[in-house]
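User: Hi! I have a protein structure encoded as tokens and I'd like to know what sequence might fold into it. I'm fairly new to this, so please keep things simple.
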């Protein structure tokens, strides 16, 4: 499905990002797994892909750093000659009530989740426009659609990603570049494993399907958006949330 396509997945060392990287590689793509601080996890993920018969390598970059993102994209282009699929998955949380949230916690979440997405799109777009083709898939969140108490910074960043997705889709469509977003709900990852049982139960009560998603279920939707099967879709936000945001 993705034979010889070149893909870059940010925040790919674990969780949803790793599942996406593994899924794209399994379909024939050469995958660059971006990481910031989790070098060991990203290296293990890349090694596992290779062990399974795929092609992958880890690349370090803090997506909040504009210049570093430019250097990462240029490195991918220099090594592989092109970039076909960009998945913006890197993200963090710094939860807290709005009235107590520090400016630092607000800024850090926006810098990585929203500005980081802008940085990679900004630097990749110049190459994609020359190619007259490409797929950009941004991982947002149901929190960016509905809002979430205690996550003003995270919800704002993910809502921003939705607006950025739609604007980029309009700007790049004439050159054959599709830009879409996936909005996961409650997903079983290391991040959600740390939640208390009370919070988990509360979240599950809001899901009509009555269960959390697996990272693979998010990755499967990303695969669809990365493939030719979604060639006539752009500017869309696909909620993979068990019905939370319907």
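Assistant: Happy to help. Inverse folding works backwards from shape to sequence: for each of the 246 positions I chose a residue that suits the local structure. Here it is:
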């Amino acid at each position: 499905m993705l034979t010889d396509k070149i893909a870059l997945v940010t925040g790919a060392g674990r969780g949803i990002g790793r599942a996406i990287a593994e899924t794209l590689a399994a379909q024939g793509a050469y995958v660059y797994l971006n990481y910031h601080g989790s070098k060991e996890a990203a290296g293990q993920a890349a090694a596992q892909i290779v062990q399974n018969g795929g092609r992958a390598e880890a690349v370090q970059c803090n997506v909040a750093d504009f210049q570093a993102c430019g250097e990462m994209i240029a490195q991918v282009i220099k090594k592989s000659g092109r970039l076909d699929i960009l998945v913006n998955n890197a993200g963090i949380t710094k939860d807290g009530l709005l009235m107590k949230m520090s400016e630092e916690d607000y800024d850090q979440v926006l810098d990585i989740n929203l500005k980081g997405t802008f940085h990679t799109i900004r630097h990749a777009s110049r190459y994609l426009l020359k190619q007259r083709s490409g797929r950009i898939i941004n991982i947002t969140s149901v929190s960016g659609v509905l809002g979430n108490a205690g996550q003003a910074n995270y919800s704002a960043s993910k809502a921003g990603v939705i607006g950025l997705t739609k604007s980029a889709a309009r700007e790049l469509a004439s050159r054959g570049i599709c830009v879409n977003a996936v909005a996961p709900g409650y997903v079983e990852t290391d991040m959600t494993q740390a939640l208390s049982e009370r919070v988990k139960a509360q979240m599950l009560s809001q899901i009509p399907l009555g269960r959390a998603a697996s990272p693979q279920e998010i990755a499967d939707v990303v695969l669809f958006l990365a493939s030719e099967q979604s060639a006539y879709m752009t500017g869309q936000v696909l909620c993979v949330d068990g019905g939370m945001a319907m």
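A useful reference point when you look it over: The beta strands are 6-9, 30-35, 55-60, 85-88, 134-139, 177-184, 237-240. Feel free to ask if any position seems puzzling.
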